[in-house]
Structures are given as C-alpha cells and as structure tokens.
Amino acid sequence: MMFWLAIPLTVVFYLFTRKLARRLKSPLINPILIPALLIIGLLLATGQDPADFQAGSRPLSLLLELAVVAFALPLYQQAAKIRSQLLPILLCCSLSVLLSVGTTLLIGSVIHASPELMASVATKSITTPLAMSVSEALGGIPAIAAGLVIIVGMMGAIIGFPLMRLAGIRHPEAQGLAMGAGAHAIGTGAAAEVGAAQGAFASLAMVVCGIVTALLAPPLFHLYLWLTG
C-alpha cells in the first residue's frame, strides 16, 4: 500500500509545507525537513516497510539530477556578475572546502574517530551523489555520507539566513556563496527562494565546491592518515 501512496504523500506534504512556510516566514518550517519528519512518523506509526516507500518514491529521486541541472538558469541570468567576480568566488569556495574538510579531520583526530568514519564525514558539504562517490573512493561508508549531507543541507537551509542576518551579512552574492558552499543543493534551493542573485551564486558555489572537494579531499585525507598513523 505504501508503495502506491509514496509519491502522493510526498507531493502533498511538500506543497502543504511550502505554502505554510510562505505564510509564516519561519526558517523552521522547511519544505524538506517537515515532510521528511511527517513521513518518518507515518511509517513508524503504521509499521509500514520503509523499503516499500523508497521503491514507490523512486521516480521522484530520479528528478534530483534534473533539478540540479535546472540551477544552470540562474547562473546564466547572473553571468555578467559572475564573470566580473570569478577570481574572488573561486578563492572563497576553495577556502570553504579547505576549512570544511580540514576542521572535520582535526575534530576526528581529537576524538580518535576511525578512518572509515572520517572518510564518510569529510564530504558532508557537497551534493549527495558526489559525496557518496568521493567517500567510497576514500574507503568510507556512502550511506553515512549521504545521511550527513542531508542533515547538513537541512540545517543550512533552516539557520543559514538567520545566522547571516545576525552576523550582518546582507550582500546577496555573499549570502548565495555561503549557502551553496555550506549547504549544497538544499541550501541552494533555499537561497533561490530568497532572490535570483542568491540562487545563482549558491548554484555556482555548489558546483565549484563539489569539484574542489573531489580534488582536495583525497590528498587531505591521506595526509591526515599519514600524520595520525
């Protein structure tokens, strides 16, 4: 039964939460977090097999890649601004990756985490498919990497803009870069809801950080293993 209800429930919960979020203007009413919690609660309450729900919602999962491709539109619309600031953008994204991976490995060394766990956690700030691929190449567990990516993205979408307002960061381009670099596709979607400039620069940061992470994470991880071995 849950197989056939998977897509209708997902769409209804999403549309309801999206409408509620626009009305209440609260970062806690997240169109990704709330439907996920509702579906988890429903599965637990009814005792349904999560595998049936996952199989039924597979067509929606296939749309994820198309959704990522659609981020090219705001990039095109903001192409002139992006070209004029390309070097600072690349520098910011590269520093973001170094900080993300570096602090993760540093914390891991302090708490004596296993190399397998660290390989799974190091890719937490890039899109799910890329994070799973990179973490697996490093000897990590793709399922853990995917779960952390989703958690990081949701947290970024919820608290990202409130934190930036608190810190006095009002520049649309800076806001977009921060959301794309720190909260990948989920954060980019939240940025696009705020404005075209935020969405475009978040899209660019997401792509650049994904590429830079794929290039830098392996040598940084092997350096970590050498230093802690």
From TrEMBL:
Domain of life: Bacteria
Keywords noted in UniProt: Membrane, Transmembrane, Transmembrane helix
InterPro entries: CidB/LrgB
TM ranges: 28-47, 59-76, 88-111, 141-164, 200-227
GO cellular component terms listed in the entry, alphabetical order: membrane
Cleaved signal peptide residues: none
One of the Pfam families matching this protein, by short name: LrgB
Main location: membrane
Localization of this protein: Membrane
Membrane topology: Multi-pass membrane protein
Keyword Isomerase: no
Name of the protein in question: CidB/LrgB family autolysis modulator
Organism: Oceanimonas doudoroffii
